[in-house]
Structures are given as structure tokens and as C-alpha cells.
Amino acid sequence: QQQLVESGGGLVQAGGSLRVSCTVSGRTFSRNAMGWFRQAPGKEREFVAAIRWGGGATSYSESVKGRFTISGDNTKNTVYLQMNTLKPDDTAVYYCASSKGWVIISALDAMSSYEYWGQGTQVTVSS
């Protein structure tokens, strides 16, 4: 089993930047995937970005592509989400998630691909 802890959320003005982090403890997998999802009030949880360690593949939702960058430091069991040019619509609780094993590229954006989830970190973007 794994435990995931997010950090780095906070309040930022529109157009600003923020980096959230997710650190994984417990059993890790050399070819697993790490994903970021977010959930705004009154909305369903949605995919944001993902990275696959084994293949170096990344995936982004269209709403954040070009603004957000996902990266990871496998030696620290930590994945990062650098968020630039933030918009009020980016306001949400951001959750990181980890798969138990290999995830094909086309499934990186599927919530069902992930087995372990963090508690979330709040990101608020003011206008």
C-alpha cells in the first residue's frame, strides 16, 4: 500500500504561479503512473496531468495544456505540478494519485487507473 501527501496549495492571484507537490510513502513501483486530479465546488473530479515513470510519458487535460507542467523526482518519490498563468477556473482541491502498476498512455487520464489517493490540497486563484 501507499500513502500520498500533497502540499504547496494556497492562494494566488490570477496570472500567478504555484507548485504543488505529492510525496509517496510505502511501496513504490518502478513503472507506475502518478496523476493529478482536481475537484471544484459543485463539479466532478477531473483529470489534470499525469506522468508515467517507466516510459517518460506525460498527459495533460486540454484546459491546462501549455500552462501546467508535471514532473517527478523518483529518488524522492515525489511528483510536482507546476502551475503557471493560473486562472480563477483553476480553483479546486488538487489530488495526487498513484497507480499500482503499468498504465497505458491512453488510460493515464482515467481516474480508474489509480489506486491510491492523497488527501488533497486547496488551490485558490483570485481574480
Quick structural gist:
The protein is 0% helix and 50% strand. The protein is an all-beta fold and 127 residues long.
Task: Supply the number of helical segments.
Answer: 0
Percentage beta strand: over 45%
Distance between the termini: 40 Å
How do the SSEs run, as a string of H and E? EEEEEEEEEEE
Task: Describe the protein's topology.
Elements: E1 2-7, E2 10-13, E3 18-26, E4 33-39, E5 46-52, E6 58-60, E7 68-73, E8 78-83, E9 92-98, E10 116-117, E11 121-126
Parallel strand pairs: 2-11
Antiparallel strand pairs: 1-3, 3-8, 4-5, 4-9, 5-6, 7-8, 9-10, 9-11
Explain the overall architecture.
This protein has 127 residues and is an all-beta fold. It is built from no helices and 11 strands. The mean pLDDT is 94. It is globular. The strands form 2 sheets. Strands 2, 4, 5, 6, 9, 10 and 11 form a 7-stranded mixed β-sheet that branches. The protein has a 4-stranded antiparallel β-sheet with strand order 1-3-8-7, with no helix packed on it.
Highlighted features:
127 residues; mainly beta
